[in-house]
């Protein structure tokens, strides 16, 4: 194997192993903690989504993929991506309630409400993904059959269609780009309002809230900026396309676990609590 081919194989493999390990650790704590904090519950759901995204993209970074495999990858890619977008919007609402109404926070964001919001995010992601696949599968493909990327997505498949795709591109941009852009602007507006609201809090409360908001803003930026770049414009080839694709599909899922754990005190506290509980359970057995 040449050095170039070795790099092409080992690079994605290392990213896959690191990302899977990090997200498995975070997701594993969700099964151990029976009463997680609400934002910890949302972050664990994001980690679980990253575990679903990586097998759908990285193992298929091969020279050849079937049409059915391409559509399957397209479905899971947009399914997971849609859930993440809706879930991040839910998390912004969660932070708004926590800061604006701290005394009623546990009453408003109870376990039932959190479960319903997560379920709604999954339903929204499924509807979004089915729409992408339904519009794409109707296109006539008669060659060439080479994708200009390392994974199957709508912009690359549309370029291979043997028909005028102008109307379809408008539908895709409105479905993907505008929705993503609007959610991103809503999130920016909500976090801006939260930062303004924090001015009236104590220094300790402001520091704690800023730490949590900083991790959310970092994740939102890493996820939404590439999405806006890819989908909120005509499907044409630009020099930065592949770099942004690598950032969104491989680098961001690898960085997210570190952002969750290092920047979120509730996650760290939950992990410490579960670690102490496991030590207490294993202690008597050792004697």
Automatic annotation (TrEMBL):
Domain G-protein coupled receptors family 1 profile stretches: 10-260
Gene3D superfamilies in the cross-refs: Rhodopsin 7-helix transmembrane proteins
Coiled coil: none
Domain of life where this protein originates: Eukaryota
Membrane-topology annotation of the record: Multi-pass membrane protein
GO cellular component: plasma membrane
Segment forming the signal sequence: none
One function term, GO molecular function aspect: olfactory receptor activity
Pfam families for this protein: 7tm_4
Keywords: G-protein coupled receptor, Membrane, Olfaction, Receptor, Sensory transduction, Transducer, Transmembrane, Transmembrane helix
InterPro entries: GPCR_Rhodpsn, GPCR_Rhodpsn_7TM, Olfact_rcpt, Olfactory_Receptors
Compartment list: Membrane
Transmembrane stretches, start-end: 13-31, 43-62, 74-93, 113-131, 178-198, 210-231, 243-262
Job of this protein: Putative odorant or sperm cell receptor.
Name of the molecule in the record: G-protein coupled receptors family 1 profile domain-containing protein
Native source organism of the sequence: Moschus moschiferus
């Amino acid at each position: 194997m040449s050095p170039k081919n070795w790099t092409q194989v080992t690079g994605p493999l290392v990213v896959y192993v690191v990302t899977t390990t990090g997200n498995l650790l975070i997701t594993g704590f969700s099964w151990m903690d029976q009463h997680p904090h609400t934002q910890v519950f949302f972050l664990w759901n994001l980690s679980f989504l990253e575990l679903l995204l990586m097998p759908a993209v990285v193992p298929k970074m091969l020279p050849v993929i079937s049409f059915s495999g391409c559509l399957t990858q397209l479905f899971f890619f947009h399914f997971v991506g849609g859930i993440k977008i809706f879930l991040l919007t839910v998390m912004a609402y969660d932070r708004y309630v926590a800061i604006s109404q701290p005394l009623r926070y546990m009453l408003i964001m109870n376990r039932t409400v959190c479960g319903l919001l997560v379920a709604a995010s999954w339903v929204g992601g499924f509807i979004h993904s089915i729409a992408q696949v339904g519009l794409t599968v109707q296109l006539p493909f008669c060659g060439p059959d080479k994708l200009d990327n390392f994974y199957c997505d709508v912009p690359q498949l549309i370029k291979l269609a043997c028909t005028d795709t102008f109307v379809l591109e408008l539908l895709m941009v409105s479905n993907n780009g505008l929705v993503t852009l609007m959610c991103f602007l809503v999130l920016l507006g909500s976090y801006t309002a939260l930062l303004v609201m924090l001015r009236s809090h104590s220094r300790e409360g402001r520091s704690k809230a800023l730490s949590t908001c900083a991790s959310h803003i970092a994740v939102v930026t890493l996820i939404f900026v590439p999405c806006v770049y890819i989908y909120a414009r005509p499907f044409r080839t630009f020099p930065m396309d592949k770099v942004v694709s690598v950032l969104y599909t491989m680098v961001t899922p690898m960085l997210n676990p570190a952002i969750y754990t290092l920047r979120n005190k509730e996650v760290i506290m939950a992990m410490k609590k579960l670690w102490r509980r496991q030590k207490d359970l294993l202690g008597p057995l050792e004697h």
